[in-house]
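Narrative of activities, Objective 1.

The group set out to show that a structural description can be obtained from nothing but a protein's sequence at a throughput compatible with the screening campaign. Below is one input-output pair from the validation batch, recorded exactly as produced.
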Amino acid sequence: MEEQRKEGQELADTSVDKEIKSVESNVDEAEQDVDNMGTKQAAVDNNLENVDNSVEKQVKDGDGSVETEVEPVDFYENEDENDGNTVEEPVENVDNSAWDVENNSDVPNKKGGIWWKIVLGLVVFAGFLGYCWYATGGGFGKNKDIALTYAKDNGLYIFDLKNEPYLVNDSISVGGEYNYYYSAWGAMASEDNEALYYLVGINEDNVGNLYYKNIKNKESEGVIIAENVFHFITSTDGKECVYLVKNGAAIDLYLYRDGQSRLISDGILQQNGAYDLSEDGSYILFRKSNNDQVALYASVIGQEEPIKLSDSVVLDLITQKTNVTYYLEQQGDSYQLFKYAPGNAPQLVAEKVTYAELMPNGQDVLYCAMRAKDSDLAQLIEDDITDLSAYDEKRQAEIQEMRSKMSEEEGLDPIFQDCYVITSAGTKKIQGAVVSAVSLEGKSGFVVGYSMDEPQAVKLSEISSFDEALYAYYSELMYGEKQVFVADKAGNVYTLQDKGVDPTSIKVSNDGKIAAYFVQGEQNGENVLMVKALDGKSEAVEVQKGVETISFLGDSEALAYFYNYNGGLGSVGLFAENASQEIAQNAVGFYTSTDRKEMFYLAELDTTTGRGTLIQYDGKEKQEIDQDVFSFQYKENGKLAYLKNYDINKEIGDLYYYDGKTTRLVDSGVTAIYMY
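Output recorded for this entry:
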């Protein structure tokens, strides 16, 4: 639910005509997932190529000189959240945009703070790694069974999973259209199934009226909270709701609590992630314009005046359970990470931070920072000359000039990063000499990244200028071997030795014992699935070629994979106990549960209707849930909502609910299922 709640904060609004047609069709969805994977990897490759070109240009510009000024990297809010937690999205992470090299000029000295920025180019793809998170929702153990809301004709209905469904409101739209943006957050039920918040009366400007209703009391009328509402989010218990009201060209932020609304702030930013509510509903974060920067405020529930936390924030996030805010603030030409909790002043966590994100478990924070210690020039040049008189006058002058330069320089700004994870137990350094890192999908708390050894110093006797040493140093950084590693929160690091490992593909089982990943096939570049035990006692095992997606089943070591994709259909396989087996052919809608050891897919697909047989597989046995199924939505705890007998021309179908044992017809003529 938390992933869907965060997903709903995207303020973009692109109508797609009855989202059920384009979002909930598993035929289309499977094709989009595969296409998106290719797009994400292409984006990673493209940005790595940009980095290569930029550094290579440094090396080549002007008589071999590397003294070329590097344009500082700008941080922007990532507009593409949760390509299906990052993660997180990365959740609302800063975008380390591709950088360019401009103007031939001398490299500023250490105080200019330029060289440390070069690493931001080297780590540019970290943000793109975050894109590969697939937000499946759920978690370990027992989750809340939350009421199901759906659209029928122009009406909003609710089903509390036990009693008969009923109509909540008969006017979802008054001129607006169904779209993915709306269905992702347009209705939200509390985890105790008592409170429902919903937006209806959507007009052509995609704003509407926000209501509250007591789910338990079927006969009660919905209570209108506000008109002209653009967006809203709620606390998990449903006691607090914060929402955005469109006020002309401005957006105002309000809080609804105990049956009353009050203005929190007017004129907040109209951007992705401009506001957030802590999971426990105790405080609100929001952003406002501050000249050419962005100011961050916190409004504690029960207190009148908001507190300004920062004048120049580039990233903010709230952890689950602990409800602590971490935010990244620009200070000059670097970035500092702070933490804040209501009742306490903001505290500095780290300086010269290059990357920060809320990890997929929603509780821990990963960040990377430039090394605090400078790189000694002895790492750049080794003075191996013992007898200066052995050289002619010209060579002696060159040597003296280089020695003088070495004594005058303060040292190179750090190039590599150290990476840390903040948990409730404290802060732990997990890896040093890091080029880039990002957390892995799931609750395991693993991190994946690139690391490499420090470049070897060049001998003074083998070079003729200081610039030549810099050339060799940065060439080694550019073309030197980089190792792909995975690390856990305890600081245990494992290096994947296979050639061509795709870091965006890596998955680790929740017990931290098994890693699965793709390497690129040598002949046609297809994805080759590899599995490796992280105990270091055995070599990686090749499982299957032509694989598109992989995922572990729940908290087990059983690995499901989708392969041989062709025309929207593919095969489903399982690797368990060191053996692989084919589970199904011509399948679509492949989905693995994160909270149980099971997967779901559609088999025997009729390509003219988009319908198939819904299958559940627990790693041992298949179970047919129903036939003529068009799409399904996993609701945690082994339960599903699905559309059956869907008519792609009329855009309606029959909504069923599967409680893990039996199916139940909820309603007919349904157009959409709300996605929370």
